[in-house]
Amino acid sequence: MTHQLACPHRLLGGLSITALALMLATPATAQVADPQSPAVDPQTPPGPAPEQIAPDIVVTGSYLRNVRQEDRASPILSIDSANLAKTGVTSLGDITRFIPQNVGSAGGIQDLAKGGGADSRDTRSANLRGLGAGATLVLLNGRRVVPADGFVNLNSLTPEIAIDRVETVLDGASSTYGADAVAGVFNVITNTRFNGLKVSAQYTHIDDSPAATVQAMWGIGNDRFHTVTSAAYRYQAGLQNSQRDVTNFFNPSSGAGANPGAFTLYSRPQTASGGDVVLNGNNYSALYDRFKSSAGTVTVVDPNCGSSASKSRYVPSANSPGFGLGSCQFSFQAQNPIRPEAKSYLIHNDTSFEVAPGQTLFAEIGIYHQDSNRRSVPSYAQNRVGARPPIVPASNPYNPFGVDVAFIGRAIGSQGFPGYPYRLIQDKVDQGQFVVGARGNISGNWKYTANATYSRADISSTDRDTDMNLFQAALNGYGGPNCNIRYSGPGAGAQPGAGNCLYFSPFTADVSKMDPSLIYNLQSNVTTLSKIEYMIGEAVVNGSLAQIAGHSLDVAVGAQYRKEKQSNTYSDLLLSGFGGFLGPNRNTAFSREVKSVFAEANYELVTGLNINAAARYEDYGNFSTTAPKIAVNWRVLPQLSLRGSASKAFQAPSIANSAAVLISTNVANIIDPRDGTTTFRSVQQYGNPSLQPQKADVFNVGATLLPIQNLSLSVDYWHYKYKNQIQLQNGQAVINADPNGPNVIRDASGVAQSVIVSSYNAPSGTGTSGVDIAANYRFDIGTAHITLRNNLSYLATYDVDTGTVVYDGVGHRNNYQTSPLTSAAAPRWRNLAGVDVSIGDHFISGTWRYVSSVIDDYQQVVGAPTVARVGAWSVFDVQYGLRFGADKQYELTLGMINAFDTAPAKALYTGFLSTLGDPYGRQAYVRIGAKF
């Protein structure tokens, strides 16, 4: 079905939020113009007129091909390729920063809100309404893509040059697409009818972290055969916390995460002659006599804690004599990354061939590869030390205490090791999407589409961790790569500290004296291999079922079969549990089959009043669910349209979450309520076979008004209410609820080593609602074409269910001790406003982005008084474009993101709150392009 400009009395149907906020803000149904405006928008930025054959119109959120987008009630944000270019972003994922309805991201720069470090690779998810990445379904040309990172990485879908448009459905769409479309759908639609050659290159200057993208698209064909191939190479330099003022601050770590570390004395320190041990003028033997416990132990910090060489801070305990007792704080903040170094390659092809009149075969291929490097603090802390931590024996010549002492800390500190200033995490991602299918006419106006999709991702991640067995051997004098040491003990000829065998010292004063070959014992590579596969078969038929009272009853029916497979394989050290920080893990392999049937109908009850109904049934084997939806769109007047929709959406538990096994092991800061200490501890996640799909009631009502020529106003009220929301238990909440319970693993000394968590269906307390308002006004002054645009999202409610209590999260960071991992920062206001001016071959655009402030509740108890606030984020973007050449086939674009170099507001622990702002500073870019 080719699109034609609708007649005036139909134009308002389905208009919602207007265009994507950062763009021209043309009506949400991108193919429809204001009835008082020309069919071609005069504000289109410079660029050669595309030579294309009109394709079938894809209606996002519907399987009906003979019902137009503008006759549907679901609010849609739409952006085309020309307007995408206005942002200056270098990846598809960066668009989410410009969508007020998107609240943060899983992966990438926006994933720091919970207090962790940046992702180890270049990833970005959609997260509509702040309901979690898993609640937004991401599609490529209307088809599912494998969620390689637990979510679909937007940067892996297709080169930006190949994008025809991006459409975002802003209400529940499970009735059409099934699981995961709770908050909406993010659908990337490629240009399948392009003819010619198009190339572009962009360089983006960010202080200390530049980025570059090179792209090309080639299309050939005619009315019967057409193929379009696109390719892109993208590079981004890494950025460290030390390279930005907002993140380069002292963020103290103590206990097992400290540097220098701590040492436990099991007996009275003594010199070789039996005298007292005096270090830096302090008598440690007398300290032991005075403060030893009933078990005969006392723990002291490194004797050089607080020295300038260690860049640490000594914090004495209340009863400390001024040395030894207390904690040694060190900030690893500066050595961790803001974003990793990454390079990626992306190739995409769409091919179609009309084998007979009205019968077409099509294929789609997407191939993605990424290499990334994450540089961070050179040594992990010990989060599992056992009843007896690693022992520095009295025989170790570097041991100043003269007796056996236990060490708790980072194996090589945080200042690094000779020739090893940081730890490198390397990730490789290979992803492919392969589609074959057919579409065509059946009879009359009935059409069909059938396709098969194979989507796969292979991810290899290499990290480094302390091998606690080898580490102990090095403390005993059997260190180095050439020492004959085995797990069963020293081999023939091996002597501690002699020949090829070396002693290692964990004392800060000795680090510079260590032989670099000792790194063999101190850290070992650990690898994780993940494979995720989707195999999908789908068929849909649609057409007009009957004519009733002069109006067509249009229907679509279809079925889908989906097989999902996922496996994780870990290296020996991760499996053994002998790693100092990571693990233990277990190899896993899961698969499941999902069978679906669905139907949709649309009927124009009277002229201008469309009713749409849809439902989808999905069977997962151990559970099934049905998602219905009803929507009404009423064009009351040519200048006024009203709409409303109500639906039930759902998100199925992941394959792993439904298994009764250990599925992952992570690390988190845990406060032990028994003694108040905060340390890194293992959090072991087990699956839960009793999990049921989480469901949500979704409601939307809105209106679009065209009060005067070239002015459009749009407003939508939206509401989501969860039932049985799938949440992962908060490790801190588990240990708080029962410090001595079966889900807290303690060693013989009573020290918490691991916390066991699992997913569960929370009570139906989580919900959110708000109002989206958009406006767009186009006018001319002389030869200048001007567009004013604005897109506002107001958050009215954001109720967060912790599993035990529901609290109002609006205006909060939502990072309380017991906040679920899915909760996002929830500023009350998000707004984008701008102006676009085109004069001949010149184009100028300016955009203002604003996010309101939030209360900083990082690691507080729910209900505690406010202690800090993260300020608002307000930045301006500008762009200038020029089209030139004999046929205007060349383009030059200059622009700045955050033109005034505004720093993000400060936030506790992380330095900035990434879902509000970013620490990049001013980003200046230049882009050149040509089309032949």
TrEMBL record:
Gene3D superfamilies: TonB-dependent receptor, beta-barrel domain, TonB-dependent receptor, plug domain. GO terms for cellular component: cell outer membrane. It is a multi-pass membrane protein. It is found in: Cell outer membrane. The keyword Zinc does not apply. Pfam families: Plug, TonB_dep_Rec_b-barrel. Residues 1-30 form the signal peptide. Residues 33-53 are annotated as: Disordered. The keyword Cell cycle does not apply. Residues 70-185 form the TonB-dependent receptor plug domain. Residues 402-898 form the TonB-dependent receptor-like beta-barrel domain. InterPro entries: Beta-barrel_TonB (IPR000531), Beta-barrel_TonB_sf (IPR036942), Plug_dom (IPR012910), Plug_dom_sf (IPR037066), TonB-dep_rcpt-like (IPR039426). It comes from the Bacteria. Keywords: Cell outer membrane, Membrane, Receptor, Signal, TonB box, Transmembrane, Transmembrane beta strand, Transport. Belongs to the TonB-dependent receptor family. PANTHER family: PTHR47234, TONB-DEPENDENT RECEPTOR. This is TonB-dependent receptor. It comes from Sphingomonas populi.
